[in-house]
Amino acid sequence: MPYICVFEDRHSSQLTPLLYTRAAFELRCGLFTFLERIVSHYPGATIILFCRNYLSDVLQEGYSYRVNDVHTTDNTCLFLNGRAIFSLPIPAEGREEIGVQDNTLVYARLKGENAKKMSSEMLLTGDPIEMLKGTVPVVNSRVPLINYFWDIIKHNKSQIEKDFRVFIKEGANLGNLYEGVHLINEDQIFIDKGSRIKPGCVLDAEDGPIYIGQHVTIASNTTIEGPVFIGNHSVVQSNSRIRGGANIGKVCKIGGEVVNTIFHSYTNKQHDGFLGDSYVGSWVNMGADTVNSNLLNTYGDVKVEIDGNIINTNHMFLGMAMGDYSKTAISTTIMTGSSIGFSCNIITFTYPPKYLPSFTWYSYHGVKVYIVENALRAAKIAMKRRDKKMTSAEERLFRRVFQLTQKERNSVPK
């Protein structure tokens, strides 16, 4: 039985504002999170997760895997970077070697003492390539690496197609299609058990596959154009336009027009309004007619602020990233290349800034800090509405994020 260790590295912080409450390998791209794809490649393997220490309690609650548990056996262990999209598996057995790309460790197949040298702390703060080179062969890796949130958006559409081809292979209808539903290119449409497709819906897979999970409801007169993924227990509201690259995680409620946008899980965008080329976290709620721009009037490259630095993404089409628990009021308009932090509230009839630090309450009265007790209260109410209760570990993590993001808030003019 192989040992697989999925790890975060020191570059994970560049994936703000999406990683405050999750590890890099929990992000969605294609039909899976990065971790789900890896686990699917190695059935029966012993899985070890290496993450930032303050995430370990929540990850231990969410998974049956070992978390930050140092590898102590003499068995071969395959270490896989949680920011890499492994469309095909790296062999778990074979000679020792490390796969490197742009001076970043993508994977390492190690034995004995070399495997035992690897720890979550070393991978997050040290230089594993320097430690291992000279004793372990180095190969160049071409596995895609995610450095910023726009890299996920760039790969998402094609990754839905790749995952469907590798893991699903062909279409099937295990759900309930009402009379008046039209399927185009049916062998590229997979509808899982318990899902309902209401009258007047069109599922068009000519340009890419469509995957609909278990107990999904697609309300009447909705158009879905592949490649698209819709996760378990999600609802797509009537008259919606779900276009290529839409990636809807579990237990979401989505409406309006969506193109190449990822919703992580438990997020509501029920009403009309366009979202394009974006990544939206969990427990987000968007008011009616919330829209974002994904293209500059100049057709120039979109720039994004990350950790106080303005970065040219080299993307013509790019919307935004929005952290968990954030909310927008009705008719909110979000500018191209925006980065909205964790637990922000946007209540304004003007454009909010392109960068909002976590726990920002932004209104026409100006910018103030969203008091953590008030933010927690709202988060718990939102979770209760979905029959979920915030655990003690999740509450400690929520409060920790408030502390970790204090510097962000202090840097914003009032």
What labels describe this entry?
alpha/beta; ten-stranded parallel beta sheet; 414 residues; Spore Coat Polysaccharide Biosynthesis Protein SpsA, Chain A; UDP N-Acetylglucosamine Acyltransferase, domain 1; single chain; 28% strand; seven-stranded mixed beta sheet
Biggest sheet, open or closed, and with what strands and sense?
A: 10 strands, parallel
User: What is the residue-mean pLDDT, rounded to a whole number?
Assistant: 94
Oligomeric state: single chain
What is the CATH T-level topology of one domain? Spore Coat Polysaccharide Biosynthesis Protein SpsA, Chain A
Walk me through this protein's architecture.
- This protein is an alpha/beta fold.
- The chain contains 9 helices and 40 strands.
- Among the domains are: 3-147, Spore Coat Polysaccharide Biosynthesis Protein SpsA, Chain A, CATH 3.90.550.10; 148-270, UDP N-Acetylglucosamine Acyltransferase, domain 1, CATH 2.160.10.10.
- The model has no long low-confidence stretch (mean pLDDT 94).
